[in-house]
Amino acid sequence: MIEEFLDKIICGDALEVLKKIPDNSIDMGVTSPPYNKRENKKGWLVDKVVYKGATDNMPEERYQSIQIEVLNELYRIIKPGGSFFYNHKIRWERGIMLHPMDWLRKTKWVIRQEIIWDRMIAANIRGWRFWQVEERIYWLYKPKSENLIGEELKSKHALLTSIWRFPPENNNPHPAPFPIELPVRAIYSIMDDRKGGVVIDPYCGSGTTLVAAKILGHHYVGIDISKDYVEYSINRLKNYKKEIPRVENELSKHVVRKTFKERKERGEFVGRYRKTNTKNAIPTLFEYMDGEKKE
After folding, report:
1. What percent of the chain clears pLDDT 90, i.e. is strictly above it?
2. Average pLDDT, stretch 244-261?
3. Using an 8 Å Cβ cutoff, are 210 and 232 in contact?
4. Could you read off the pLDDT of 23-75 as tens digits, one per residue?
5. Residues 150 and 220 in one domain
6. Looking at residue 78, which CATH number applies to its domain?
7. What percent of the chain has pLDDT over 70?
8. CB 33 within 8 A of CB 88
């Protein structure tokens, strides 16, 4: 029964704990797993990442294999029509690019969208490549009745675009926490104003996803292998009210002041390709380039 897991943080290996959760019992989830950065990567500004109670150093093939197993267990326990948001990043090892798509395409999930998280700062400022200020968030979808597209987002959520711009968390004991705005945006966009859902984070770390779920009125299931992070998360959940202002600030961005339909009915701008009846209207960039070609 899912009830025995609700509103708990379980200390243990993510894969082993997930195997105990019933099929089709979770509404959605958000997570960011350890990136397998080998505990030897650091920049001029950021020291190497070391997790308490866990290793981030394993053969890449083994790492990807575990991630596939974890994601497939999550697929099993998420309800049909449910979503999972998976935060990861592009890495390089001795000049070879390691992309999350390398293993995501081997899972059972439908990859509904790739979202760019613009962190606005670079963890490593060496010049081997353009400074990497972004990470990726993959919106994974479990089809319902063979519908690979799923339900349409409400406009107030979709208008936030596929580029999410907020800085990483600071003043947090976890070495790689995402800000609370990230899981709030993911959860609220999918669950909207519904309450009482179940949200899971199998690598819950400092408990950011769990706090977001609680404030938004949902049950949570957290898993982490570190006793220290589990204890920190429990204490953080007890003091969740002080994080409400940041959650409310994120929710205030989910607003549509005028819908596409309303703009169209009023003859207002609805897109760069809209035809205009005004003879002296300034051409769009695409119209201008097309005219240049014709000349």
Report:
1. 73
2. 90
3. no
4. 999 999 999 999 998 655 554 444 555 545 566 679 999 999 999 999 999 99
5. yes
6. 3.40.50.150
7. 82
8. yes
Type of residue found at 34: P
Q: What is the pLDDT of residues 159-190, one digit of tens each?
A: 999 999 999 887 766 656 899 999 999 999 99
CA distance 201 to 35: 16
Q: Copy the structure tokens of residue 244.
A: 């409400």
Residues 105, 209: one domain? yes
Query: 55 and 136: one domain?
Result: yes
List the domain range (segments joined by +) for residue 272: 268-295
